[in-house]
Amino acid sequence: MRTFHTKVGWWYWMIIVILSSFLFVTFWFHELLLALLFAIAVIYSIEGMIHTQYIITDDSMLRIESGRFSKKPAPIPLSQITDITKSKSWEAAPAFSLDRLKISYRKGGTKTHVLLSPQNAEAFVRCLKKQNDSINVNI
After folding, report:
1. For residue 87, what are the β-bridge partners?
2. Phi–psi pair at 34, nearest 5 degrees
3. Residues 13, 40: Cα–Cα separation, whole Å
4. Quick check: 68 and 45 in contact, CB under 8 A?
5. Tally of structural domains, the chain
6. Cα dist. 119→5, 35, 86, 91, 134 in Å?
7. Residue 78's closest CA among 102, 59, 53, 65?
8. CATH code for position 125
9. What is the spatial distance between Cα 132 and Cα 79, in angstroms, rounded to a whole number?
10. What span, in angstroms and rounded, lies between the C-alpha atoms of 28 and 94?
11. 41-44: which pairs have CB atoms within 8 A and are 24 or more residues apart?
12. Contact call for residues 66 and 48 (beta carbons, < 8 A)
């Protein structure tokens, strides 16, 4: 089993700084309901960032964990992965950076994809290729 943590982009740090600033201001001016909402947003943001990881299991599955508060998607069998390409998409994904990898795979009879941003993309791709050398890589 191998675990890869998410890469965190500067824009995500800016979101946390902005939310924290609003939290401070609302707390300072005793707007407690707004302060509570901003505190929840800051906690949710930091928790998701810390706990987002991509796990390649010993039984040839890719498991994506994106925080304790998020629904865990079904694991992806490595044998179903067809392509890996670079992406800069802003599409919602369990990725905290815009340096993303688009993982295309077959699910049922259709082709779908997921966007991930592992800290060490080269090692992540090597690990996937080691278990399924038929993956087309274009990064």
Report:
1. 100
2. -65, -40
3. 16
4. no
5. 1
6. 6, 33, 14, 19, 23
7. 59
8. 2.30.29.30
9. 6
10. 33
11. 42/16, 44/69
12. yes
For the chain, 139 residues long, give each residue's pLDDT as a single digit of tens: 999 999 999 999 999 999 999 999 999 999 999 999 999 999 999 999 999 999 999 999 999 999 888 888 899 999 999 999 999 998 989 999 999 999 999 998 899 999 999 999 999 999 999 999 999 999 8
Phi, psi of 100 (to 5 degrees): -115, 160
Which range marks the domain in which residue 67 is found? 2-138
The span from the CA of 45 to the CA of 40, in Å, is: 8
| CA nearest neighbour of 125 among 94, 106, 103 | 103
Hey, is 5 helix, strand or coil?
Answer: strand
Whole-angstrom CA distances from 75 to 9, 33, 86, 116 are 25, 38, 21, 14
- Length, in residues, of the chain: 139
137 token code pair: 């890589």
- Which residue, among 6, 7, 2, 5, has the nearest Cα to 78 in the 3D structure? 2
Scan for tokens 């694991």, then name that residue.
75
